[in-house]
Amino acid sequence: MKKIAVLGSTGSIGTQTLEVVRENGDIEVLAMAAGSNIKLLEAQIREFCPKLAAVWTEEKAQELRMRIRDLDVRVVSGMEGLLEAAAMPGTEILVTAIVGMIGIRPTIEAIKAGKDIALANKETLVTAGHIIMPLAEEYGVSILPVDSEHSAIFQSLQGGQRKALHKILLTASGGPFRGKSRAELEDIQVEDALKHPNWEMGQKITIDSSTMVNKGLEVIEAKWLFGVNVEQVEVVVQPQSIIHSMVEYEDGAIIAELGTPDMKLPIQYALYYPERRYLPGERLDFSKLSQITFEKPDMETFYGLKLAFEAGRMGGTLPTVFNAANEKAVAMFLDRKLRYLQIPELIQCCMERHHNIADPTVGQILETEQETYEYILGRWC
Ligand code: NAD
Ligand code: MG
């Protein structure tokens, strides 16, 4: 039995990870962590029988302890709890499916404890890739991408020579507002931005997909995962989300991974790598597929993507500012305290005033995150 821990078990990636576990029947979940959905977490604990459960607030942890007092499961809370779940003795893989930079410290803790990382939590690599990737190498652990595009790139690189990799072609659906002008985006409401054409995902990443900030985060994520410059990453809009990404080799050959959009494929591939297993679900039927189309991304309207390229090129603490400003902006937009077009505006404003720190420590990254939040609270709220 393979043994794993899942951070963010009640979210979109977390629940699909547990579906993969359920369908395969040969993985044991030893630890789970979640934010606030205690009812679902209780149901998951009763089904998957972990030894440890971590909940963010102590109040919610108390509530969970009461609900599962008939079970022999230890319930912990706070960052200490997350760290304990991440480094749970006996596990081989940590699935990082929480949202945001809160994932940095647990990921580091797990690597130091010798766990492979099935990484969905892209914000960790975006802000601390220069720490995570060398650390993984030092401890001899693998960072296995769960993000569908990065899994596609990883799959396309199997059997190829890494040194012959010329370019990454990162595909994007373009989100629900593809083709719209800035003027047409003036009055976008939360409900409009939460409708993704092809993927069912958590709220934050769905908004990020609509602004193309998600693609920007993925450009920086690709830089760290595959050891390329951001200039080697080209974003290709492919609205049907059938090509999940491609790589181009030095000789001009392009290898792609295609399929129906289903996050369970990259999740299962990361959990069993290098083994491929049967995965139930719809298959691509080329006789029914009428077309696959391509466009260039509109980086003027969706300039969050342009800002991401700049942050990725500069490195240091600038990607942290990009990410933290976006996290805050999206939270404010979801609370209806910020207009849609103010999301990239706020990111740009925070990036412009920032004094970049090269090669930052985790402490400096977390301080930069705080400073960015404080600046936004003082000036924009
Ligand atoms: P989500 O909002 O659906 O789920 C987030 C999970 O994290 C929930 O279980 C929540 O309870 C938990 N969580 C939040 N704060 C926590 C805290 N302080 N302590 C413990 N748990 C906490 O998000 P998601 O869509 O599943 O995305 C998770 C990550 O995966 C993100 O980094 C996202 O960018 C990435 N990702 C998601 C998808 C997708 O299809 N959903 C695809 C690619 C990458
Ligand atoms: Mg993705």
Q: Enumerate the distinct ligands.
A: nicotinamide-adenine-dinucleotide, magnesium ion
Mean pLDDT: 97
How many helices? 16
Q: What's the story with the biggest beta sheet?
A: 7 strands, parallel
Q: C-alpha Rg, in Å?
A: 20 Å
**Residue share in helix:** 40-55%
**Strand order in space, largest sheet:** 4-3-2-1-5-6-7
Shape: globular
Look at the helices and sheets and give the structural class: alpha/beta
DSSP E strands, number = 11
Write a structural description.
This protein is of the alpha/beta class and 381 residues long. The protein is built from 16 helices and eleven strands. It has helices at residues 12-24, 38-48, 58-67, 78-86, 104-112, 122-139, 148-156, 182-185, 190-193, 203-211, 213-226, 264-272, 304-314, 318-334, 342-353, 362-380, and strands spanning 2-7, 27-34, 52-55, 74-77, 93-96, 116-119, 143-145, 165-172, 233-237, 243-249, 254-258. The strands form two sheets. It has a seven-stranded parallel beta sheet with strand order 4-3-2-1-5-6-7, sandwiched between helices. A four-stranded mixed beta sheet has the order 9-8-10-11, covered by helices on one side. Strand 5, helix 5 and strand 6 form a beta-alpha-beta unit. Helix 6 (122-139) packs antiparallel against helix 14 (318-334). It is globular and about 55 Å long. The mean pLDDT is 97. The structure holds nicotinamide-adenine-dinucleotide (NAD) and magnesium ion. Nicotinamide-adenine-dinucleotide (NAD) binds next to helix 1, strand 2 and helix 6.
